[in-house]
Design brief:
By secondary structure, the chain is of the alpha+beta class. The protein is built from 17 helices and 25 strands. Among the domains are: about 150 residues, 3-Layer(aba) Sandwich (Rossmann fold), CATH 3.40.50; about 160 residues, Hect, E3 ligase catalytic domain fold, CATH 3.90.1750; about 100 residues, Helix Hairpins, CATH 1.10.287. Strand 21 and strand 22 form a beta hairpin.
Length: about 700
């Protein structure tokens, strides 16, 4: 015959298992006539929402059951085993399989093992009753949680803190309502002032830690102090803290950040309550999805204001500037990141530093990199052919190819269409803004009329004060919404008018295709606008172990192809002459106009197929070509172009090339042989001659 055991559980150390132990030991001695030894009483201090294997004493109890040392276990109620019906039934089945009987005092229910039942009918009846009671117990837990939540909501609506009183600078009054803590409020004002005036969060923490003042203690100082006092009052042993020393607490930048972001200091109370989920065993602070919100409460209470709107806004603007975003496009301006895709794996591109830092551009080697080649613990590598290239290189190629395309479309007409569209949007916004202003004026007039009536009315002062307070709160809430909307519409209108002004100036200043391309290149904002407006996508393929194929698709269904090298360029792949190369060293590249869709790339075989139907490349034989074969044909028929680097990031004028940048560009060239500048000049002049002929043909066509 095995022993009898008792299992007790409480959720926190501030609760006691004495009542459970006393009642169950009394039941064992009087009803069962089997006293329970102290070593057979198992006690856990852990939430019932945690899984059973996480409870050390419960695990020991199950080990004794598996060894056959226990035949009876007493529990105070179902929830001591589990708060969910499925897990409760699973645990009871475990005990039955090991021929252990269990007793639940609150339900006054014995669950015996199969051998103790006189007939199968008794066993079936017991299981049905057990399932019914388990479901009822789970429902009771859910009902308790909902009632608890309902009580919290009522307290919030009646002016209680709802957890906000734990914010630094606030406390409870004798009515359990949230009020300002005068001493801590002074520290809050100092924190906002220091940050707004240029102090970093680390410096502020160091300053506050250096002061031996009660009001300069970190937010968690008083909380831990009160917690220790409560444990000591209940006779509990001091809690051990592994992550910090409770006697030497210091300010943390994370705590400071929460203070600087908290709108409660402007008197805005925001509380969101979520529907309880007893079946979710993940701690609340680790959940990414809190589930269904049952209350979203927002109220403006000027009695809780510590910080002025002006100071809070200054801090907010500085926080926005200091905010780090893993998308480097936020604080590292770039031209193409949102447009680039890897044709090999379909991944987007990230912006970062060059893997090989032997060569630097500007202050560091900024690159575009296929995100598929990134290998981290949370992101396995999925691409082995993805491109990584310096930004100035790809920016230069795409801009050069795009300028050819921009020179062939009617920019004035396109801009005019965009101006008309923007003007229509402005008209709509003006109408909406006027309607909002009208509603705000009507709301203000109505509020002022109501205040005048209350001022001259007779009756209980308290009653009228309450009515006036409510009317004021409602007015401020609605007026704030209207005001914010009006400001937003005003900013949108102003932004669109600035865009229209730029487009009008752009159209008026162009007199020739050459001037157009030159003016676009010399204006960074205009370059960004044109890329955003006309470039639909940029796809990269590894066509050769040294070369990447770049396919640019435009919003007007045009398409251009170019190439970028993965390694240093050889001398015969570049040329430079200060008299003609006004933007610096130029790098040779394919410049294929595929608007007729006569070229097709197969990434599996790394080949380009040409159908021979192009009106541009009439002398190019139809066929399927490897990179080297098509490169040779394009060179023979003089369809190889070139592009200069384009430094979009960190330069006021991205086309200005000083000596330092020229030296940087020369690092791209493998110094094996001298460049034949005479031959190069002839090539450049011939290219310029052909370009001039194309301009004259296009101008004649336009005049017709």
């Amino acid at each position: 015959m095995g022993k009898i055991a008792i299992y007790c559980r409480v959720s926190t150390e501030q609760q006691s298992t004495d009542r459970q132990k006393q009642e169950l030991t009394k039941y064992a001695a009087e009803k069962l006539e089997r006293p329970v030894a102290d070593e057979d009483i198992y006690t856990d201090v852990i939430s019932g929402y945690k899984k059973g294997e996480l409870r050390p004493e419960y695990s020991k109890l199950k080990t004794e059951v598996e060894a056959g040392n226990i035949d009876t276990i007493l529990f105070s109620e179902f929830t001591r085993v589990s708060r969910t019906a499925n897990e409760l039934l699973s645990e009871i089945q475990f005990f039955q399989e090991h021929e252990v009987s269990t007793y639940f005092q609150k339900q006054d229910l014995w669950v015996k093992c199969a051998k103790d039942f006189k007939s199968p009918i008794d066993s079936m009846s017991s299981n049905v009753l057990l399932h019914l009671l388990a479901v009822m117990a789970e429902y009771e837990v859910e009902l308790f949680n909902e009632r608890s939540l309902s009580g919290k909501i009522n307290k919030i609506k009646n002016g209680n803190g709802g957890g906000l009183e734990r914010a630094f600078g606030y406390m409870h009054n004798e009515k359990k309502q949230i009020v300002i803590n005068p001493k801590e409020a002074e520290t809050v004002v100092r924190i906002f002032d220091m940050y707004a005036n240029g102090y970093s969060t680390i410096q502020i923490c160091q300053i506050l830690d250096s002061e031996d003042k009660e009001e300069s203690r970190p937010p968690y100082y008083n909380q831990i102090k009160q917690f220790k006092a409560n444990r000591e009052k209940k006779g509990l042993a001091p809690k051990e803290y592994k992550r910090f020393d409770p006697d030497h607490l210091t300010w943390r930048t994370s705590s400071l950040s929460r203070i600087l972001h908290n709108e409660l200091y402007k008197g805005i109370k925001v509380i969101t309550m979520y529907k309880p989920d007893p079946k979710n065993t993940t701690p609340i602070h680790k959940r990414t999805d809190r589930g269904e919100p049952v209350l979203k409460y927002k109220e403006v209470d000027e009695n809780l204001r510590i910080i002025s709107d002006e100071l809070f806004e200054r801090v907010k603007q500085r926080l926005l500037k200091a905010h780090y975003n893993k998308n480097n496009a936020m604080h590292r301006p770039n031209l193409l990141k949102d447009k680039i895709l890897c044709g090999e794996c379909g991944s987007n591109f990230s912006v970062g530093k060059q893997t090989n830092t032997a060569t630097n551009y500007k202050t560091d080697p900024r690159t575009y990199r296929c995100y598929g080649v990134v290998k981290r613990k949370d992101h396995p590598r999925i691409c082995s052919e993805g491109m990584e290239t310096r930004q100035c290189r790809l920016d230069g190629l795409v801009l050069q190819l795009s300028l050819y395309m921009f020179a062939q479309i009617d920019i004035e007409q396109s801009n005019q269409k965009q101006v008309l569209r923007l003007q229509a949007e402005i008209d709509d916004l003006i109408r909406v803004k006027s309607a909002e202003e009208k509603q705000l004026n009507e709301l203000t007039t109505s509020y002022q009329t109501a205040m005048e009536r209350y001022a001259f009315a007779k009756g209980s002062n308290d009653k009228f004060k309450e009515l006036m307070s409510k009317a004021t709160a409602d007015y401020e809430h609605q007026a704030t919404k209207f005001t914010n909307d009006i400001i937003k519409y005003g900013k949108d209108i102003a932004s669109k008018r600035v865009t229209i002004d730029k487009l009008n100036k752009l159209s008026a200043s162009y007199s020739s295709i050459k001037n157009r391309t030159h003016e676009i290149r010399n204006n960074k904002e205009l370059v960004k606008h044109m890329i955003d407006e006309y470039v639909a996508s940029i796809t990269s393929y590894k066509i050769h172990h040294l070369w990447n194929l770049i396919i640019i698709k435009y919003t007007n269904d045009e398409e251009f192809w170019g190439t970028i090298k993965n390694a240093r360029y050889k001398n015969n792949e570049t040329f430079y002459d200060s008299s003609v190369c006004q933007y610096g060293i130029e790098f040779k590249s394919w410049m294929i106009n595929n608007g007729e869709k006569c070229f097709c790339y197969d990434k599996e075989s790394h080949t380009v197929t040409y159908n021979g139907k192009s009106s541009i490349y009439k002398n190019l034989p139809a066929g399927t070509y490897k990179y080297e074969e098509l490169q040779q044909l394009l060179e023979q028929q003089e369809w190889i172009g070139s592009y200069p680097l384009y430094f979009y990031e960190g330069a006021t004028d991205a086309t200005q090339t000083d000596e330092s940048e020229l030296n940087i560009m020369k690092q791209e060239i493998t110094p094996k042989e001298e460049i034949d500048w005479s031959k190069h000049n002839d090539e450049v002049l011939e290219r310029l001659r052909r370009q001039k002929e194309q301009e004259e043909m296009l101008q004649a066509f336009t005049e017709k």
